[in-house]
Amino acid sequence: MDDEWDDSSDVVVVPPPVVNNYYEDKVDEGHSLSRGRGFTSFNDDDFSKDVGNDFGEKRGRGGRGGGRGRGGRGGRGGTREHRDFETNGDHYNNGDSEDRGDRGDRGERGRGRGRGRGGGGGRGGGRYNDGGESNEGGEGGEEEAKKPPVTYVPPEPTENEQEIFSSTISSGINFDKFDCIAVKVSGENPPRPIESFESANLRKYVLNNILKSGYKKPTPIQKHAIPIIMSGRDLMGCAQTGSGKTAAFLLPIINVLLQDERELVVSPNAQPQVIIVSPTRELTLQIFNEARKFSYGSVLKVAVAYGGTAVRHQGDNISRGCHILVATPGRLHDFVDRKRVSFESVRFVVLDEADRMLDMGFMPTVEKMMEHPSMVPSGERQTLMFSATFPEDIQHLAGRFLNNYLFIAVGIVGGASTDVEQIFHQVTKYEKQNMLKKLIEDNDGKRVLVFVETKRNADFIAAMLSEQQMLTSSIHGDRMQKEREEALYNFKSGRHCILVATAVAARGLDIKNVDIVVNYDLPKSIDEYVHRIGRTGRVGNRGMAVSFFDADQDIALTADLAKILRQADQPVPDFLQGGGTATYKGNKYGGSDVRKFENTNSNANQGQEPEEEW
Ligand SMILES: Nc1ncnc2c1ncn2[C@@H]1O[C@H](COP(=O)(O)OP(=O)(O)OP(=O)(O)O)[C@@H](O)[C@H]1O
């Protein structure tokens, strides 16, 4: 994927702490400016500015030329969702949010139109970022050179033990109901699941850190994934949002690293033993902090690399050596191309949000990593993939990176968390603003995460709410990284009760006390919907998702929404009935391994039985 690189090139980062007071007194006001914020993306370090890489051509197609230029979300090849191509690209923000470079309305539209064929309009350098309406199809190379350097150095991660362990969302009243969800494990000779952390044969450090995190018993994905990973197997794991997938891979990996310690190689380049990639900067940072938490007090070194921040510090940290490197793919490759990082010592590769990492947008960077000359071959490393959604076509693509893997499906692959009450209102686009204001007024003091489809709309809605004295932050791909992190901090800390976000915040983010998720605009893909509403109702807590359904815009999603609602035992409103055939095919209740193993181990009888095909 082309755009990945924009950010990547400029930074090596020192991440901010999970909790500290760094952002205290810094009120995020970007929203009130209603501006498309320029995405400044150039490093100020002394790295070579002309790193050759094999993405240049793609980037060029996407609207940007030059080694570091970025641009072209328009050039993204699209994802597997055909319906995304059909609508105007404006809605499609994933790229903006993700570490793909690009950021810009133009880029978005370009991609929307052009997915699958390269699109018309990536955008080039930073100067397009302020609106980007004009300048369609900008060539990025020259603008690139004028971009100001990225100077943002995030705060050092906290060393305070209490802060390190404070990130966990307390489990809710439905936590024990996780045990009633059907689990299917397929593949050859899966090891037995564990029943408790204590019986998992984990090392003392790891067990202590689990206890300090407040975990009392493993979730279903953890019960199955921990022994599978500890026994050396590759894994594709699917489980609902907020059900502990991060710990399901981090705990056994950390345990293996401590159990079978290998020398850390730092010369001639840093050789991490674990590479974890995820699609967004904020999620990468979150996983980094989780990895620090679970390895706390041990010899293990964890580093992070993501775009939008000044490079040098990040690079220096990595160069000092790291067992675990958590990265966005663009920035990772930047370091690899600069010969600061290589893959010779890799023992584990993890793709979090794996279906996103393997869609057409990110696939080139994943391929580049997996097929890099220094990468330890499949079979000699362990490859792990996790997501709440894992469509079958993506599973087929994933298979080539995996070796005799096991497949775990907890509940319905791609199903919504049943702890989220899903409410729909049929609206016209003119009614949305008032409806949102009323909803927020009626839920005074509650923490509300509002999803919109475009970056411009995110700024607009945030400004509108702020004018109503509703303290609001916004997060999207045109905001500078510092602003993004401040916005998230303000929301997490409760300073601002409302966060307006594009798809940048849809996946993976684990934020305490999100009471309501609002789909001000519905996404174009049902997977995206499932991830978005999964920002509430986590680890057994109840949550609520309110979606504004505008038939003019959202009709294509009707059948899929109805299916998701039925699966989660939620009422289906009349206007979502009879919407035709769901497009999300191929998943059966309890999950479906595309390899169709005969010997599937299942505890499906403990949970609900399949009702329908997906
Ligand atoms: N065994 C456990 N007991 C209690 N809390 C847990 C347990 N495992 C994980 N958690 C907490 O549950 C929350 C959600 O976990 P996590 O972010 O890993 O979910 P996820 O399955 O990756 O969700 P998503 O699909 O949205 O990325 C986190 O706050 C985590 O600390």
UniProtKB/TrEMBL annotation:
Biased composition (Gly residues): 63-77, 117-138
Protein family (similarity comment): Belongs to the DEAD box helicase family.
Region (Disordered), start-end ranges: 22-158, 576-614
Reactions the enzyme catalyzes: ATP + H2O = ADP + phosphate + H(+)
GO biological process, one term: regulatory ncRNA-mediated gene silencing
Residue ranges constituting the Helicase ATP-binding domain according to the UniProt record: 226-408
Residue ranges of every copy of the Helicase C-terminal domain listed in the record: 431-580
Enzyme class: hydrolase
Motif (Q motif) on chain: 195-223
Annotated EC: 3.6.4.13
DEAD-box RNA helicase Q domain mapped to chain residues: 195-223
Molecular function GO terms recorded: ATP binding; hydrolase activity; nucleic acid binding; RNA helicase activity
Organism: Parnassius mnemosyne
Name of the featured protein: RNA helicase
Alphabetic keyword roster: ATP-binding, Helicase, Hydrolase, Nucleotide-binding
Biased composition (Polar residues): 599-608
Bias-annotated ranges (Basic and acidic residues): 23-32, 46-60, 78-89, 97-111
PROSITE patterns for this protein: DEAD_ATP_HELICASE (PS00039), HELICASE_ATP_BIND_1 (PS51192), HELICASE_CTER (PS51194), Q_MOTIF (PS51195)
